[in-house]
Write a structure and sequence with these properties.
alpha/beta; Rossmann fold; 2 domains; six-stranded parallel β-sheet; hydrolase; hydrolase activity; HAD superfamily hydrolase (TIGR01509 family); HAD_sf; HAD-SF_hydro_IA
């Protein structure tokens, strides 16, 4: 995909151009939403419980404490939340150590953002230990800032992670484009006042005001993202 990209910081009478791009990680840049579910299934099987496939839509995209807490309550498993969190993170870290496939278009988009020096942040509900492992594959140089789920008082679906990322980049949240794959992440970005591009991974997401839905990151480039800001005016 070829782009003709306005210079960063271009101003118009109606307002500023795109100031930053904030990206979710699991299911958006890396094809790992299935990894999390597989690990959850395995861990609970070891505890003597079978997970219902319908629960997958409940736990996707949320913070570890919410997802793990829901599964403990749903199954009645006799395990403390903090202990379960460790088991899930250990299992996931083992999975990504064996394979970490990128979502279609992710590598190209990150390279384009880097080439044009667009301030870019990785904003994930995953813990710092997981983000740092994934960054070895994504390339830490692609991101000016990363925000982990265990580094903010409230993670997604609250706006705190995206507000923190925008502030860290010195950007107006209204001039930030957020790319997310779950309803939980979309809710967080919209609560922060950002323009959202939804690329649904597990469950459908409907278009809405300030929300554009695409089927793949292969549809997204800088011309597309700048166009979102133009449409806001």
């Amino acid at each position: 995909m070829t782009s003709t990209v306005p210079a960063l910081g271009t101003r118009t009478a109606e307002g500023s151009a795109l100031q930053a791009v904030l990206l979710d990680m699991d299911g958006t840049l890396v094809d790992t939403e299935g990894f999390w579910w597989d690990v959850e299934v395995e861990v609970f099987a070891s505890l003597g419980h079978t997970l219902d496939e319908s629960w997958r839509h409940v736990v996707v995209g949320g913070p570890m404490t919410r997802s793990a807490g829901f599964l403990i309550e749903a199954t009645g498993a006799d395990i403390p939340l903090d202990e379960l969190t460790v088991l899930l993170n250990d299992g996931f870290e083992d999975r990504i150590g064996r394979a970490l496939p990128l979502m279609p278009g992710a590598g190209r988009l990150l390279a384009e953002l880097y080439e044009y020096e667009i301030p870019t942040a990785l904003v994930s509900a995953s813990h710092r230990r997981i983000i740092d492992r994934v960054l070895t594959s994504l390339g830490a140089h692609h991101f000016s800032l990363t925000v982990a789920g265990d580094e903010v008082p409230r993670t997604k679906p609250h706006p705190d992670p995206y507000l923190a990322a925008a502030a860290g980049l010195g950007a107006d949240p209204a001039r930030c484009a957020v790319i997310e794959d779950t309803a939980t992440g979309v809710a967080a970005a919209e609560a922060a006042g950002c323009q959202v591009v939804a690329v649904p991974s597990v469950a459908p997401i409907a278009p809405a005001l300030r929300r554009t839905v695409v089927t793949s990151l292969e549809e997204v480039d800088l011309t597309f993202l700048h166009g979102l800001m133009t449409e806001m005016r």
